[in-house]
Amino acid sequence: MYRWASDLFPIHRSLMGEGNRTTLRYLKGLLPDLELFEVSSGTKVFDWRIPDEWTIRDAYVCQEGKTRRLIDLRKSNLHVVGYSTPVDAVMSLEELQPHLYSLPEMPDAIPYVTSYYQPQWGFCLTHAERAQLTPGNYRVVIDSSLAPGSLSYAELILPGQEDNEVLLSTYVCHPSMANNELSGPVVTTALARWLATIKNRRFTYRIVFAPETLGAITYLHRNLSQMKAKTVAGFVVTCVGDDRAYSVVHSRMGDTLADRVATHVMKRHAPDYQDYSYLHRGSDERQYCSPGVDLPVVSILRSLYGSYPEYHTSKDNLDLISPRGLHGAFEALRKCIVGIEGNYRYQVNHTCEPQLGRRGFYPTTHTPQTQAAVQDMMNVLAYADGEHDVFQIADRIGIGFEECLTILDKLYDAQVITRSAAGQVGAAARHSKGA
Amino acid sequence: MYRWASDLFPIHRSLMGEGNRTTLRYLKGLLPDLELFEVSSGTKVFDWRIPDEWTIRDAYVCQEGKTRRLIDLRKSNLHVVGYSTPVDAVMSLEELQPHLYSLPEMPDAIPYVTSYYQPQWGFCLTHAERAQLTPGNYRVVIDSSLAPGSLSYAELILPGQEDNEVLLSTYVCHPSMANNELSGPVVTTALARWLATIKNRRFTYRIVFAPETLGAITYLHRNLSQMKAKTVAGFVVTCVGDDRAYSVVHSRMGDTLADRVATHVMKRHAPDYQDYSYLHRGSDERQYCSPGVDLPVVSILRSLYGSYPEYHTSKDNLDLISPRGLHGAFEALRKCIVGIEGNYRYQVNHTCEPQLGRRGFYPTTHTPQTQAAVQDMMNVLAYADGEHDVFQIADRIGIGFEECLTILDKLYDAQVITRSAAGQVGAAARHSKGA
Amino acid sequence: MYRWASDLFPIHRSLMGEGNRTTLRYLKGLLPDLELFEVSSGTKVFDWRIPDEWTIRDAYVCQEGKTRRLIDLRKSNLHVVGYSTPVDAVMSLEELQPHLYSLPEMPDAIPYVTSYYQPQWGFCLTHAERAQLTPGNYRVVIDSSLAPGSLSYAELILPGQEDNEVLLSTYVCHPSMANNELSGPVVTTALARWLATIKNRRFTYRIVFAPETLGAITYLHRNLSQMKAKTVAGFVVTCVGDDRAYSVVHSRMGDTLADRVATHVMKRHAPDYQDYSYLHRGSDERQYCSPGVDLPVVSILRSLYGSYPEYHTSKDNLDLISPRGLHGAFEALRKCIVGIEGNYRYQVNHTCEPQLGRRGFYPTTHTPQTQAAVQDMMNVLAYADGEHDVFQIADRIGIGFEECLTILDKLYDAQVITRSAAGQVGAAARHSKGA
Questions:
Q1: Chain A residues near any Cβ of chain B (below 8 Å)
Q2: Residue spans of chain B under pLDDT 50
Q3: Contact assessment for residue A236 and residue A299, using Cβ atoms and an 8 Å cutoff
Q4: Are B351 and A48 inside 8 Å of each other by CB?
Q5: How near does any CA of chain A get to the CA of C198, in Å?
Q6: Is the pLDDT confidence value at C370 over 90?
């Protein structure tokens, strides 16, 4: 995953444009079934309209009459404000200043700034560089153009035994930043490759790579009724590369299957994880959980966007993320998916306790361990009432879902319990009686 | 308000009688549309019957053969037990003692005692005065009569755009006491005068001045079905004059719109207010919230009846209340009403987040303040789902209802959201899904 | 009760057999209407089958060629593993060891071991005795037989004015142990004798004496639909003899009438009682509360099975239990039953507060006590709304159910309130709105 991130790091992504297409084609190399889509400028998507596509060829600032570039897009694609209008002019430092963005409190970081919907131009630079600009005239060049084009996104559908779906969504629209953003696509890609290898996959997986906000809105515009009818749970995958923290951002009402799964998994995977309500949202759960959309979607992250100092600066680079950081997030999400795949409502087949002894489920030797194992099995049976799902049973008993599934599988194979998938889609999953 | 209280202070009010009518006529001077009602003695009102009307002309105690009045109604109308039967006799101090009421623990206060439904007579005096009574014979005179008359109450209906109503109820039945009672009628009068000036008043206001308990019962007997069908929220206004505390007494089940509004407003208006359950009730919420009546009524008070030492004594006088105390309660109630007037369920018009930028709702400069403002607006939109009302949105986000209304108004004017008033009356308001 | 336990202590009870019948016949001597039932070996009961009946005539171990019995059933009927297969052999100490059970951590206690469903034989002895066994050959005799017979249980139905039932269930299957087991049958017997004396018993009482687990399963197999349709509340009575603690084990969902009653009563009867969830269950609530059975059954105990050191050893003898211990449990259960008998939903007959004064419910003298009494009565009336039952009213107000019943009886006799028994059976009792 880290290598993929390194490959993708230099590409100049934006809301739309060639950088995005290059990125998606690279991912298609890793996920052959990934399908790429283009949505033309001008297309109306709900309350929004796809804007024109921005192309940036060069951007720099140098002293008038000199050639040494003091600010140079070739050194960092963060140097130019995203969607800057073209400019080629000579101006005084005073005139230039309102177009410069730097961070006094982080003097060696270049901030990340965009202006997708308001025409303007600007340069981003470190505050240290800015301080060295001396009064005088500067040549200011942004060689960009804005023209009808298309918004690019990619979708991978991995069909399962059920039509019901699990959503994984990540975004492709940030220039060279590693935790926010490349960690998202690469962990999602790794999850997709792992999912593709699972035989007898139960759920269908809908995996989406799209620019943040407008991409998610566009995607929902095209797929909403389908997704509302089928989505069991979903995860927005972003900021999953550093190794400092784990976080969960909950859905709007905080009570979907995705919320319950994320809470259950993270309490064991990373007991000191940060649990954020929807008020702390910041990525595409904003769309997936909006009123009327209300998909059961949460976000599982390492350090939350906005909460770490390197966020939206040039310091969010490949040093910030690590194979270990990426792998930890991958594992957390993998566990959630394993749990959702195994999540049924189970119901014991017999009135009163079944006789476990004649099925070999009673230990012949008694140790504290075997006693605890029998007790766990009896407890699982006690709540296998057709109303509790696996996570609800596990939470009630105080065991991990994996252990709960192991017991349920054993009982299911012995035909002591039956199972049903009823009532798991979307908002319906909320109102399960066992909750 | 303080001046009105001063004017009304000397009048000798009781359960029924001329003092009450004088008081109501004074209020009619301030509220020309106030309508006065009389309900004849003997009228059955639910489980009760309007008793005869008590007239008190004189009451005193002096030593036999002397004229200096040791206890004298003319000095304080608290000196005679309310509804005392007539007496004109000479008796020993021993015979008199069982008819005297004083407070050993507050030796310079005259207690307030009534006996509306059991015929008896008595005098109230300070414990200091009582201690000075020497053995011997006393002339004891109470010149009172009990005869068919009528219970007096007054009602002001301020019609609004909606038939649905907000109830304000206060009582008129206590002789010269200031916090419990006159603060109630004067704050209610001030609220009524303020309400009368509001253009485009949304709700109809039902404002009731009646003797406590029996007056409320009588009023409900005449208006219950109407009130049950229309009441959105209501407030019993009493003990709103001192400046030592704020209190809320909740409705019987504690979950009506009035409860939510009172809690929301008081947490901001007076964060250290005392929150009392219905078990601490003591005024006409006893009737308004009784089983089967179950109107959404709470009480907002300064110091709770029974909780302050001067309660039901001559110390509850004009020194106890203050313009500042009255004004604080007025403001708390005014805020509740403003909130209720603006309380709709709002619903965003668009699937996914609406584009705020093109409507000018995104700041062009970014400061922590503008960021917070955008975040509040986004949060309001996130819960404008047609299920949360204004107070539920505000409570979820953690902002005041005024701020929430400001944002909602802006969004409503921009046609980003629509609103509905559904499900707000009475018990129905309880079961809102957003709660 | 203690004498009954002393009488029953020496009898060798087991899952089935003559010891059980002797025990039940003894109880029938105390409860003439007790009816005894036999269910033949081989009968299928849900997932189980009644096994053959075990008869034990003699069991001992002595050194080869000697007659002094080193382990001797005649000294304690715990010495032989329950349902041991017959053996008559000479073997070395090494061969004997796997058949011996002792407790190193309690060297002077004989453990209690059974093997109902797996054919094997064994002896239980103190660890001290075991340590004295010297290498050499031993004569090992168990003179037992396993042959078709019957499982014995007894049932007492005490009819009430209502068909609805309260269940008391206890078990008869342990050899000489006092707290776990005899305390259960003797306290249950005492409760049955007390219940038989109650005139105008409201509920029908179903009182069951059966072997643990299989007996309860058998009983449910024969009576389930009846019990589901009629059971208001039930109590498993076990471990009710020592005087060290009180405990409650709740039903599977923890929200039945039995749970509420047990919590209410125990908070007052023994404020430091231990409250255990269903995860700590261990007796026949395992069957009564199993999914699909879901009777409203809890267990009220003194020291919880498994939680006290003497559990399932020869130390659980008559010294462990006491008249005082038994009586305390009897009282706790008696209070629960009194509460359930009096538990209705009450509804005030009048709109607004009824006038208590003219019914003599207002004190003529005012003291803090009379004030509190009036307040309690007003509070009871406030929640006599037809939705709260007695325990819900009492819990809301913070008084004991006895006090609440006293007030309600007074109001009921004065026709101020009416009552109904609606919605009290089984799971329906769970969903009462007042909860």
A1: 46-48, 117-118, 213, 216-217, 220-221, 224, 252, 278-279, 281, 286-287, 289-293
A2: 427-435
A3: yes
A4: no
A5: 33
A6: no
Q: Rounded to a whole number, what is the distance in Å from the CA of C234 to chain B's nearest CA?
A: 30
pLDDT at A223: 98
> Which 3 state secondary structure label does DSSP give A6?
helix
Q: Produce one character per residue of B235-265: b if its CB has 16 or more CB atoms within 10 Å, e if not.
A: bbbbbbbbbebbbbbbbbbebbbbbbbbbbb
Per DSSP, chain A holds a count of helices (H) and strands (E) of: 12, 19
pLDDT per residue as tens digits for the range C239-288? 999 999 999 999 999 999 999 999 999 999 999 999 999 999 999 999 99
CA distance B288 to B297: 7
Minimal-distance CA residue of chain B relative to C380: B279
Interchain contact, C292 vs A351, CB within 8 Å = yes
Nearest to C39 by CA among C27, C48, C31, C30: C48
Candidates A147, A150, A86, A148; CA nearest to A120 is A86
- pLDDT tens for B317-333 read 999 999 999 999 999 99
Strand partners, C122: none
User: Cβ–Cβ of A290/B355 closer than 8 Å?
Assistant: no
Q: What is the pTM of this model?
A: 0.92
Q: How many beta-carbon pairs below 8 A join chains A and C?
A: 57
Are the Cβ atoms of B224 and C351 closer than 8 angstroms? yes
Does pLDDT of C432 surpass 70? no
Give the ipTM of the model, two decimals please: 0.91
Range A285-304 average pLDDT: 97
Tell me the chain A residues in contact with residue C103 when contact means C-beta distances shorter than 8 Å.
none
Which residues pair with residue B143 across a beta bridge?
B58
C291/A382 touch (CB, cutoff 8 Å), yes or no? yes
CA distance C423 to chain A (A): 20
Residue whose token pair is 């009724």: A225
Res C357: pLDDT: 86
Token pair recorded at residue C304: 């919880």
At A370 the pLDDT is 80
Mutate to test the interface with A, among B352, B353, B375 (most CBs of A within 10 A): B352
CA distance C258 to A353: 21
User: In the prediction, which pLDDT does B377 show?
Assistant: 96
Given a cut of 60, whether residue A427 has pLDDT beyond it is no
Beta pairing, strands B123-124 & B100-101: parallel
- Percent of chain C residues past pLDDT 70, beyond the cut: 96
* Ordered alpha helix ranges (H), C200-322: 214-230, 257-269, 285-288
- Partner-chain contact C47 A350, CB within 8 Å: yes
Contacts of B226 (CB under 8 A, 6+ apart): none
Among C350, C352, C356, C416, which would you mutate to test the B interface (most chain B Cβ atoms within 10 Å of its Cβ)? C352
